[in-house]
């Protein structure tokens, strides 16, 4: 673990890496004009361990719940989409493909004979959704569409829309069809904490049903790859990842109400419209102060531990869990690499109250990261999360290629 102390210049930091977890390069000095602000930033990447069955004992779920392994050997298993008949579409970003999984004998396991590749040659394939008998998949700069066959097979991918921003630091994209019949897609920033010339970066886009036109629906969203409409209120919520290298505790991970035409502040503001002291004010459009700029942005409705790295979100609409879980959200927090005590590496529950508004975030599945002496270690990076047809909760680990399943057993 290494600790770095430097000045405000780290705010202009650009990432040269191709993947979201790639560390940004050495910070560069900024132009004079602001008093220097010092931050202590820590790089701490827990040592990855191979998945083995004995490690399952480390994983914790709330009382009455049981955690099981449904499949292994899935490679870079990312996002999930569950079909009404129990079939599961799984994206694998590193392999650029989609697999179809189905527990045909209903024994709770998906074996090698119950899975197959159904699409390939899609660079950085990630988010996926289904509409009108077609599967839509978003990759680095392209959205593809495929016809779904009765057996779960797919037609050859066709380009639905393309020409999206370069990937840079955040190549994982996500998409979902909205209740208005438009396709919503999230495109993260290409760097850590500096604005870029392409207006479609760090945004949520709204794409026409034919894929021919699009608009910037919301901006100032650094990396909101987990989002969706609440099943009761219809409000669009999104989980945004905050900037790196600004210390252990800022900026927090955010839950936002995402509205058309709104600016959510990145890279200058975080949380409840708080000015980020480590970002160069000289980059703000117009001759206004950082505080003035942030006052005109949208603040978050909930915050969570900094650098936990939300990567997917789903609402629980099943009935297998106790009634108080229904219509709550579950978020996969992939895990930090730049915090003294690691955050994330967990599935968390967003508790919605009687007014169908989010009230708090609490851990749901934990234990993937642990301290062994002075060394932090981990054996899983959670990714996709979805409600299964029987009401259990599925989530993936893209480091070890595991599909997990959480059921409520009431202690039995």
Which strand order do you get reading across the main beta sheet?
A: 13-14-15-16-20
Helix count equals: 1
The largest sheet is:
5 strands, mixed
Strand runs, count: 32
Q: Which percent range describes the beta-strand content?
A: 35-45%
Average pLDDT level: 91
Task: Describe the model.
By secondary structure, this protein is mainly beta. The chain has one domain (2-408): Neuraminidase. The chain contains one helix and 32 strands. The strands form nine sheets. Strands 13-14-15-16-20 form a five-stranded mixed beta sheet, with no helix packed on it. A four-stranded antiparallel beta sheet has the order 4-32-31-30, with no helix packed on it. A four-stranded antiparallel beta sheet has the order 5-6-7-8, with no helix packed on it. Strand 31 (393-397) and strand 32 form a beta hairpin. The chain is globular.
Quick overview of this protein structure:
Keywords: Signal. It comes from Deinococcus grandis. With about 400 residues, this protein is an all-beta fold.
Task: List its traits.
412 residues, mainly beta, Neuraminidase, 5-stranded mixed sheet, globular, Oxidoreductase, 6-blade_b-propeller_TolB-like, Quinoprot_gluc/sorb_DH_b-prop
């Amino acid at each position: 673990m290494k600790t770095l102390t430097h000045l405000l210049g780290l705010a202009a930091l650009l990432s040269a890496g191709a993947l979201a977890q790639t560390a940004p390069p050495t910070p560069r000095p900024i132009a004079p004009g602001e008093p220097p602000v010092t931050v202590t930033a820590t790089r701490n990447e827990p040592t990855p361990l191979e998945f083995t069955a004995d490690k399952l004992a480390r994983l914790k779920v709330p009382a009455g719940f049981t955690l099981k392994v449904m499949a292994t050997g899935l490679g870079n298993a990312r996002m999930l989409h569950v079909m009404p008949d129990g079939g599961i579409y799984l994206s694998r970003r590193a392999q650029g493909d989609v697999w179809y999984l189905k527990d045909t004998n209903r024994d709770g396991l998906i074996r090698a004979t119950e899975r197959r590749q159904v699409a390939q040659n899609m660079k950085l394939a990630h988010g996926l959704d289904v509409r009108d008998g077609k599967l839509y998949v978003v990759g680095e700069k392209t959205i593809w569409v495929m016809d779904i066959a009765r057996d779960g097979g797919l037609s050859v991918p066709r380009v639905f829309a393309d020409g999206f921003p370069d990937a840079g630091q955040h190549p994982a994209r996500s998409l979902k069809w909205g209740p208005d019949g438009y396709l919503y897609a999230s495109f993260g920033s290409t760097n850590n904490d500096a604005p870029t010339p392409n207006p479609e970066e760090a945004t949520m886009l709204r794409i026409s049903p034919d894929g021919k036109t699009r608009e910037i629906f919301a901006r100032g969203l650094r990396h909101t790859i987990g989002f969706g409409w609440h099943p009761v209120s219809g409000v669009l919520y999104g989980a945004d990842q905050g900037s790196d290298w600004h210390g252990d505790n800022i900026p927090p991970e955010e839950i936002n109400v995402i509205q058309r035409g709104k600016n959510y502040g990145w890279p200058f503001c975080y949380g409840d419209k708080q000015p980020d002291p480590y970002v160069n004010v000289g980059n703000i459009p117009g001759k206004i102060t950082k505080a003035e700029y942030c006052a005109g942005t949208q603040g978050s409705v909930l915050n969570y531990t900094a650098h936990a790295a939300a990567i997917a979100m789903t609402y629980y609409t099943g009935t297998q869990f106790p009634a108080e879980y229904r219509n709550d959200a579950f978020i996969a927090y992939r895990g930090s690499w730049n915090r003294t005590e690691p955050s994330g590496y967990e599935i968390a529950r967003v508790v919605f109250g009687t007014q169908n508004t989010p009230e708090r975030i609490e851990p749901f599945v934990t234990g993937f990261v642990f301290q062994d002496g002075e060394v932090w270690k981990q054996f899983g990076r959670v990714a996709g999360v979805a409600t299964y047809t029987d009401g259990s909760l599925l989530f993936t680990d893209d480091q070890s290629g595991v599909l997990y399943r959480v059921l409520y057993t009431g202690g039995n």
